[in-house]
Amino acid sequence: MRLLSFAVAALAVIALVVSQQSGSAGILGLGVVGVLLAFATFRATTIPFFLKIFSGIFGTEYVLFGAGTLMAQIGLWPTAWQAVAPPASLATTVAVFGILIYLVSFVPVVQRIARIASPYFESSEPQIANLGPFGRYRMRLGTFAVALVVFLIVLNQAQVGISLRINFFYRDFNNALQEKNAPVFWEQLVNVFCVWAAISVISYLIETVAQSVLLIRWREWMAAEYNRRWLGNGNHYRISLAGTADNPDQRISEDTRSFLNQTYSFSLTLITQVSTLVSFSIVLWSIPVAITVPGTDIVIPGFIFWATLVYAALATWVTHLIGKPLIALEFEQERREANFRFALARLREYSEQIALMRGEGAERRHLSETFGGIVDNFYRLLWRKLKLTTFTLSYNQANVVIPYVLLAPYYFGGQIAFGVLTQVASAFGRVETAMSFFINSYQSIASYLASINRLTTFEQAIAKADAQAAGGEGAAIDITEKPVKDATIETLALNLPNGQPIVQASDLALPAGRATLMIGPSGSGKSTLFRALAGIWPFGEGKVATPQGQRMLVLPQRPYLPQGSLRAALAYPSEPDVFSDAEIHAAMEKVKLGHLTGRLDEVDLWGQRLSGGEQQRLAVARALLAKPDWLFLDEATASLDEKLEGEIYEVIRRELPQASIVSIGHRSTLRAMHDELIAMEKNADGTFSPRAKSMAEAG
Ligand SMILES: Nc1ncnc2c1ncn2[C@@H]1O[C@H](COP(=O)(O)OP(=O)(O)OP(=O)(O)O)[C@@H](O)[C@H]1O
């Protein structure tokens, strides 16, 4: 960017010198705007990367177009190409864009957009870019993405040029009609219209492909990145405990999609619209009609341009006034939709429990209440949209006749030809479309802002969870690997998410190589203590020392079975193919699941097919395969009868003789299967403390 800013500055200085010699106001403007652009480009090193791309494009275009203009001015431009010499207004326009990009980088919402959008373009992952007939290239992902955006921006600008050319065709074509000039009519139709219309169609086709590729790749990257960060460090659990971001599924799927589509649409379409606005404004400005200030002789040039500007600015303001409440309403609507989807998904997951309890009535009521919320907000949205649409539709209708009304006196007075009248009507339409871009897209702006909000709060929630995991804010439970034999709780005070203390512990050793049973009243915090030892409970403080380099596995009461085959469920969280068939069969036989060995590769909803006891035995088979150094069982065999539970514990101790085992359980028969005992005892302040006991002491 620094280098580019020097090139811009150099060109601006040359333009200023040339303007002194030639006295051209256009070149002077080019120089002045260039100086400002050089400053903006120099400072642009500090703006987010996504905006830098635009800044870079406009800086480069200024240098290219500006150099062309100056060459034409000092007579260095080839005479054969005189017709296509870039006018000073072109470079000036792109310079204004470059300055605008720098200025909007200070707007908070633009900063938020750019912060979410930038990482994809900065990514340095290697990848293959398949350019079809042009070959396959290895390049950084970010480079490919930037190249695609640059290509699309330049293509969009070229399309504005094409439509400008077609606008001039209208003038000549209609004049030929009015003058009944058949040769010019046919010449214009065949040599001008057909050629430019074909170029226009092809450019739109190329744009569609390039744009779709950019968007799907960008979305793929963002979804993978959010998944990585959301799942990393157990953040998904921390976020759900802290309640800092509801419905993460909606944020990763829906919001990412709409954010990308709209960021693309707003940034590129905006540039196209502003380019259109500037180029066609020049057309409107050059129409030879002017008004005089009433009561004076002062002539205001560019009457039709000013009339269009005031008209559209007024309409934009009114739209903003009517449409503003839509932003909050759209946000609310998305939230309610996500809650409804979540309620349906939960119903599907707990279908058996609901059917057994005949809970369908309660579920129906809950669903209809949740949907009722959608409907309520929908009507509020509808009412607001109706008001907005009434205005935008009337406005769009009026646009068709406004240019004719404005120019009628000049046309009937013979000041302008019919061709000019139609050209103005078409240019007015283009300027209007560009100006009313904001008006017509107000509704999508509202939902866009809602998506930006949700993605920003999601990113903040992930960052907060990351900070907790990394020992930053709120991570007061320090679990460190040390050269110790036993896992030792030095001090530990656990709280509920609302801050209420539940467990106090100090100087408690979980002996290595032994089987320890933890008992205590329901709700005394045994599972919470396990969660804290596993490093996923963030509320509280303390110090825990764990033996170095040892692997820990926790088996909860309700095991999680992932979607897919039984083999995948057994290997989870490892890949399905890390264990041989023989190892898997042996583990299944040991936990008495031999009858399922023939169905290893069957894909099913295993979490709903297997009995509770079978699911618990499957989890034990998982532990036998994974061979952890520490095995924590949180009522992990509670669904088995006492005899089977005893047999399974025997298998665990026989197959994992080196493992240290810590179990939570209520049954007294479990004591015979353990060597040590820890009991949760109630303190005077209502909290519980784990204390080592002898089996006899515990009674
Ligand atoms: N995410 C949470 N939010 C709020 N309260 C929680 C949360 N998780 C646990 N609790 C509360 O913490 C207390 C301890 O729960 P925990 O599951 O640790 O008890 P437990 O001793 O394992 O009980 P049980 O023997 O019944 O399984 C309970 O009162 C429970 O309601």
Automatic annotation (TrEMBL):
InterPro entries: AAA+_ATPase, ABC1_TM_dom, ABC1_TM_sf, ABC_transporter-like_ATP-bd, ABC_transporter-like_CS, ABC_transporter_sub-D, P-loop_NTPase. It comes from the Bacteria. GO terms for molecular function: ATP binding. It is found in: Cell membrane. PROSITE patterns: ABC_TM1F, ABC_TRANSPORTER_1, ABC_TRANSPORTER_2. The keyword Membrane applies. The chain crosses the membrane at residues 29-51, 63-84, 90-110, 144-170, 190-216, 266-291, 303-323. Residues 158-447 form the ABC transmembrane type-1 domain. It is a multi-pass membrane protein. Residues 484-696 form the ABC transporter domain. Keywords: ATP-binding, Membrane, Nucleotide-binding, Transmembrane, Transmembrane helix, Transport. Pfam families: ABC_membrane_2, ABC_tran. Belongs to the ABC transporter superfamily. This is ABC transporter ATP-binding protein/permease. It comes from Bosea eneae.
